[in-house]
Amino acid sequence: MTAMQRLTDEDYQRAFRFARSLGADRDLALDLVQTAVMKGLSAGRADLEAPLAYLLTSVRHAFYSELRRVRTAAWSSLDDLEGVIATDLQPLEDLVVARDELRHAWAALAPAEREVLHLWAVEGYTVEEISRHTGTPRGTLLARLHRLRKRLAEGQAERISGASQ
Amino acid sequence: MTDRDSRVGLRQGIRELVEEERLDDAQLARLRALVDGRPDRPSRRRWLGAAAALGGVAATGYLATTLTGRADNAQRMAEEIAYNHLALAPLDFVSTNLDSLRDAFAVLGFRLLDAQALEDVPGTLMGGRFCSVASVPAALLRYRSETGVTTVYQARHDRRLHRGTADMDAGAPGVLRRARGVEVCLCHSQGVLLAQAYAITGTAS
Predict the structure, then answer these.
(1) What does the domain layout of chain A look like in residue ranges?
(2) Rounded to whole angstroms, how far apart are CA atoms B165 and B185?
């Protein structure tokens, strides 16, 4: 049995959900997973020790490589980061949100923001793992998450404000 | 739902949102077939290897065009249909009678066309299963003849999702595409997408 044959239906679902969180529409998300599987099946990938991790990474690379062709994948402006002193993800753990507001906020996030939240909430990654996976320095990551948390916490006010403009 | 019920921890809320996204059975079957088909069918290694090697090029072109809306949609559908054709997944309904299959697939919202009459599909009807073409729910009908298996896909024609297929009612010849050793003929008639897939060699797939 090859490494890729060890993938389960749930693994495929996880990769698909990750692609969706990145911002791919359903067709593109499926294609990203298929492309990752094809790469995994190719010669030299038969001895993969962690096919799911490979699948997620491959999906990520394929998504961003194409996204860069169309537009820059960016976090929101970091201009107002003064005073950020977060050292871990506890502020995120403590945040309670309204489901409706979260749905609106989720759709409005940049792909890179959804990716980090997905890795944290769904895949259970630590700050260090997210940092390694995304190639983002830990401090930068925490600063961005601090601002993201602030936006999510203020989501309702922002949405109302946005609707009235 | 109370206000208390509508609030949730961020982690749990994100999990709930994300878990709404699911591959459907046909999509999962396609991925399983992609992986399982390789060792079981050594004869396919050549094209599978080539496909993997070309993955970067093909995927780059495809993904870019998907994002920008300029894909060769017919080729994309042919790839999807070829996957399903080669997978030979179990039939949901076993019947040689088209009328009984029409009843079975009525939930798709259209009446199955008689592909044998319209496109001279060879062989005997074996049955059908639910699938999808370009994310549109579809019926897969399988025919078997002495020369091999032919599968016919029918779905409600969607001008956007099924763009690039021939308008049979206007007299246009079917659009032919090749993918994974399979030739796929794509057209639409009477509001129904009609796609026929068969091995290029004419041998059983």
Answers:
(1) 4-70, 90-164
(2) 9
Instruction: Please tell me which residue of chain A has the smallest CA distance to B14.
Output: A121
Of B28, B38, B66, the CB nearest to A9: B28
Is A88 at the interface with chain B, CB within 8 A? no
Residue of B nearest to A105 (CA): B14
CB contact under 8 A, A67 and B13: no
Instruction: Provide the residue-wise pLDDT of chain B in tens; the chain has 205 residues.
Output: 454 458 888 889 999 999 999 998 888 888 887 777 533 333 333 334 434 444 444 455 455 444 444 348 898 899 889 888 887 777 888 888 999 899 888 888 889 999 888 878 888 898 998 888 888 888 999 998 877 889 999 999 998 889 999 988 888 888 998 888 888 999 999 999 999 998 876 433 3
Whether residues B66 and A95 touch (CB distance < 8 A) is answered with no
Residue range A90-164 in CATH 3.30.450: no
Complex prediction ipTM: 0.76
